[in-house]
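Suppose you are handed only these lines of text.
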Amino acid sequence: MTLSAGEANQLKQAPAVEGVIPAALHRWSPRAYADKLVSDADLKKIFEAVRWSASSANEQPWRYIVGRKGNETYDKIFSSLFEGNQAWAGRAPVLMIGLANTINSKGSTNGAAVYDLGQSAAMLVLQAADLGLAAHQMGGYDRDKARQLFGIPAEYHLGAAIALGHQGDPSLLNERQQEQEITPRKRKELSEFVFDGWGEALKLS
Ligand SMILES: Cc1cc2nc3c(=O)[nH]c(=O)nc-3n(C[C@H](O)[C@H](O)[C@H](O)COP(=O)(O)O)c2cc1C
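From them, the structure of the protein bound to flavin mononucleotide can be written out as follows.
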């Protein structure tokens, strides 16, 4: 049985928890993308959210290379993806790579650069979700190839590639991906990662 995009979306929702930022509950990482462009206006909003991320010493070490379907940048990012990601990501209208400058403005190593890039990517995916868009981050790509194709300097760490677009019908996917697209999301309990002393769950009434 093939489900519609809306039905798949329903299956992926986190249970509602009152007071939690809606985008944090609605966000998930689809593999099916509709044949619909992402507007410049939405991209600008997404990168404004990134822009106002916190960063160590306000270094703002993140950089994003953004490809739109049909252009050379997109093709370069797509060609760097591992096969398993190429099998679905080529339908997303936007492909990106997030990078972090590991050298700070004083010329020293910025040990927080990768942390800051990750935090900015979280802002990116939450803002996308708030706009009704979906983002799927991918560690599975050939960083050496991407570095070479774009001429990225050695001091830049390549983080995740990111597919962005409007969530589409699971029927666009192969059988295995369709299954992944409708499998409910699982998470650890708070007691497994929120501690009061090492390994001791913090009691929250
Ligand atoms: C840094 C990072 C790398 C990831 N790499 C891949 C990837 O290469 N391919 C893929 O299909 N999903 C990838 N994902 C997506 C995760 O599998 C997904 O976020 C996780 O299973 C939780 O699902 P959800 O995002 O729908 O909540 C990656 C996510 C992150 C944050």
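What can we learn from it? The mean pLDDT is 97. The first strand starts at residue 62 and ends at 68.
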